[in-house]
């Protein structure tokens, strides 16, 4: 079969989606009833896409990400990740997960933190350190491999956790508001760095955020979600030229997309 | 001088000064307290017509044979006779080493037992429900009652001397260790547990790579608490069983002989031993948990 290279935002029948969400629902029991965290979600993600999930708290964006990661099990609907169930994707180590907090092991230095997944996965012993160093270089922290987490700033810690997620070369990167706790300047720098990583590694990224400008700047498509019940309100194609730079923020279309997303969010709110 | 002073000496000075201040206060209180405590006995001896070689009760207070609180000179000669040569069977330093060894072995046993118990308690709710009340009950049994019984029991298996005391020290110390380790094993962040799940880590990997290292600071905190209790345990065990060495054996002997000066000296050795044990654990903690910022 011949591989046809397509723009990522135009799914066709030729390339199967790497993540397929069909009528997906998630209901959590709560005292005296239940909470509908996600209802009738539909979404196809193609390999190599950069997808952002945006919405207010309680819209189910983190729930959707955790469903993809098989950290929770859906109560209805269908979900395939990397051509199989989320469980098989997790067991085949098909994705790397970056959490809201860096979640580094404070007793391990930077290099050893990045090496952790390779240890768990029993990667060949002699290749671990060189692979971890390679990943640290990718996030620009090669000079800090001997530092301990408490010696790093929040932004640097989060870069370590991204290097750790990439260490075992998963096809998909699931990121749950990774820069939410950081200041605006650090966040914009890390956004540029993440885009470079995405271009260089060709991974599929699913990125949860509640910043409209971050979503527009990073994504090929933005999935707008609304709360109570959590559902997908609409999907916006971001047709800004690649590779993106600080100039992309000045593009008139940047503001059009932001407005479009804001209106979708407002629609769900009323 | 152009170089700025390093913060280290400054910090050390700030540690030593309060200690010296406390020592000064202790010395200031010691004198009147010693005179007051001994004066009554001295007065009674004088009244009974004994020739103490001193005039007034206050003068005699520093020269009693078995003072309530020894005078400085008595302390000095007491220390001298109990400490030289240090490794003789009747010397306090040698016996402190024996007691310290029992306590350390007890703490090692307690760590092992505490770790095993904590692992089971964290793993299984039903195990926790079934055993926790009994563990608590085990700590309410007076050690004075338990020690001879354990010594007899272990003696039937030919285990004598050093080891039964270590077992009794462990019996006291395992409880704080187990409770601290339960907390430590449960201390990993939910995100860290999720992370291990995304790696498809086995339960053993999660335990060894996440839960155990996360629990080490808790282990050392409980060990410091356990150390002093275990020391008391081994001394009580030495007193209440047949012993041929140890601070407890010395205490028992000298209390039968009413040698209060010796009792005071042994007490001070015991206190110093406690400080040394806690410091040793602190040292071990610093070696093992090097990653922590304030070493």
Architecture overview:
The complex is a heterodimer of chains A (270) and B (295). Helix content of chain A is 35%, strand content 24%. Chain A contains 8 helices and 9 strands. Chain A has helices at residues 61-68, 86-91, 110-120, 125-138, 154-166, 184-201, 212-218, 252-269, and strands at residues 19-30, 33-45, 50-54, 76-81, 95-98, 172-176, 204-209, 221-226, 231-237. The termini of chain A are far apart. Chain B folds into 2 domains: 16-69; 92-288, Orthogonal Bundle (MetI-like fold), CATH 1.10.3720.10. In chain B, 77% of the residues lie in helices and 0% in strands. Chain B has 11 helices and no strands. Chain B has helices at 7-47, 57-60, 72-83, 92-123, 125-138, 143-156, 162-185, 190-198, 203-240, 247-256, 260-288. Chain B starts with 6 loop residues before the first helix and ends in a 7-residue tail after the last helix. The interface between A and B is medium-sized, with 26 and 21 residues.
Helix and strand arrangement:
The complex is a heterodimer of chains A (270) and B (295).
Chain A: E1 19-30, E2 33-45, E3 50-54, H1 61-68, E4 76-81, H2 86-91, E5 95-98, H3 110-120, H4 125-138, H5 154-166, E6 172-176, H6 184-201, E7 204-209, H7 212-218, E8 221-226, E9 231-237, H8 252-269
Parallel strand pairs in A: 3-7, 3-8, 5-6, 6-7
Antiparallel strand pairs in A: 1-2, 1-4, 8-9
Chain B: H1 7-47, H2 57-60, H3 72-83, H4 92-123, H5 125-138, H6 143-156, H7 162-185, H8 190-198, H9 203-240, H10 247-256, H11 260-288
**The CATH topology of the largest domain in chain B:** MetI-like fold
Overall, the morphology of chain A is globular
Beta content of chain B comes to under 5%
Number of strands of chain A: 9
Name the CATH class of the largest domain in chain B: Mainly Alpha
> What's the order of the H and E elements of chain B?
HHHHHHHHHHH
Distance between the termini of chain B: 29 Å
Q: Count the helices of chain A. How many?
A: 8
Measured as a percent range, the helix fraction of chain B is over 70%
Gross CATH architecture of the largest domain in chain B:
Orthogonal Bundle
CATH superfamily of the largest domain in chain B: MetI-like
DSSP summary: helix tally of chain B: 11
Strand order of the largest sheet of chain A: 5-6-7-3-8-9
H and E order of chain A: EEEHEHEHHHEHEHEEH
Q: Describe the sheet with the most strands of chain B.
A: none
Radius of gyration of chain A: 19 Å
Mean of pLDDT of chain A? 88
- Given helix and strand content, the structural type of chain A is alpha/beta
How many strands in all of chain B?
0
Describe the largest sheet of chain A: 6 strands, mixed
């Amino acid at each position: 079969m011949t591989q046809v290279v397509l723009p990522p935002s135009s799914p066709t029948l030729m390339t199967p989606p790497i993540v397929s969400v069909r009528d997906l629902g998630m209901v959590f029991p709560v005292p005296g009833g239940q909470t509908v965290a996600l209802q009738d979600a539909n979404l196809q993600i193609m390999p190599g896409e950069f997808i952002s999930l945006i919405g207010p708290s309680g819209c189910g964006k983190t729930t959707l990400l955790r469903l993809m990661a098989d950290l929770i099990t859906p109560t209805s609907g269908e979900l395939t990740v990397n051509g199989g169930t989320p469980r098989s994707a997790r067991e085949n180590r098909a994705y790397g997960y970056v959490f809201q907090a860096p979640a580094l092991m404070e007793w391990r230095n930077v290099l050893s933190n990045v090496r952790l997944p390779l240890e768990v996965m029993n990667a060949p012993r002699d290749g671990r350190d060189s692979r971890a160093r390679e990943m640290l270089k990718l996030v620009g922290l090669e000079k800090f491999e001997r530092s301990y987490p408490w010696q790093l700033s929040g932004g640097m810690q989060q870069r370590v956790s991204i290097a750790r997620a990439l260490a075992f070369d998963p096809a998909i990167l699931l990121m749950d508001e990774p820069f939410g706790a950081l200041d605006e300047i650090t966040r914009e720098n890390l956004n540029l760095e993440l885009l470079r990583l995405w271009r260089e590694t060709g991974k599929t990224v699913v990125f949860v955020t509640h910043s409209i400008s971050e979503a527009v700047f990073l994504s090929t498509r933005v999935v707008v979600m609304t709360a109570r019940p959590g559902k997908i309100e609409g999907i916006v194609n971001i047709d800004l030229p690649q590779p993106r730079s600080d100039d992309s923020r000045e593009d008139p279309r940047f503001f059009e997309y932001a407005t479009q997303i804001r209106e979708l969010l407002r629609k769900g709110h009323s | 001088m152009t170089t700025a002073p390093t913060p280290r000496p400054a910090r050390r000075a700030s540690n030593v000064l309060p200690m010296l201040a406390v020592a000064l206060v202790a010395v200031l209180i010691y004198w009147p307290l010693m005179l007051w405590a001994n004066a009554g006995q001295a007065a009674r001896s004088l009244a009974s017509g004994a020739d103490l070689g001193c005039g007034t009760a206050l003068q005699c207070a520093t020269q009693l044979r078995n003072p309530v609180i020894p005078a400085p000179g008595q302390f000095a000669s007491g220390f001298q006779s109990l400490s030289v040569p240090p490794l003789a069977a009747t010397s306090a330093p040698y016996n402190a080493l024996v007691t310290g060894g029992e306590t350390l072995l007890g703490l090692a046993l307690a760590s092992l037992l505490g770790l095993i118990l904590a692992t089971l308690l964290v793993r299984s709710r039903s195990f926790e429900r079934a055993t926790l009340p009994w563990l608590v009950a085990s700590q309410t049994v007076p050690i004075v009652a338990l020690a001879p019984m354990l010594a007899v029991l272990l003696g039937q298996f030919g285990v004598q001397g050093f080891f039964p005391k270590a077992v009794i020290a462990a019996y006291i110390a395992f409880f704080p260790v187990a409770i601290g380790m339960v907390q430590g094993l449960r201390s990993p962040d939910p995100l860290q547990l999720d992370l291990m799940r995304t790696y498809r880590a086995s339960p053993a990997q999660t335990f060894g790579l996440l839960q155990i290292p996360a629990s080490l600071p808790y282990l050392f905190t409980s060990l410091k608490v356990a150390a002093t209790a275990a020391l008391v345990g081994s001394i009580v065990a030495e007193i209440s069983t047949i012993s041929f060495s140890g601070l407890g054996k010395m205490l028992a002997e000298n209390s039968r002989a009413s040698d209060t000066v010796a009792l005071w000296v042994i007490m001070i050795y015991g206190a110093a031993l406690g400080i040394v044990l806690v410091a040793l654990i602190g040292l071990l903690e610093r070696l093992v948990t090097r990653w922590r910022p304030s070493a």
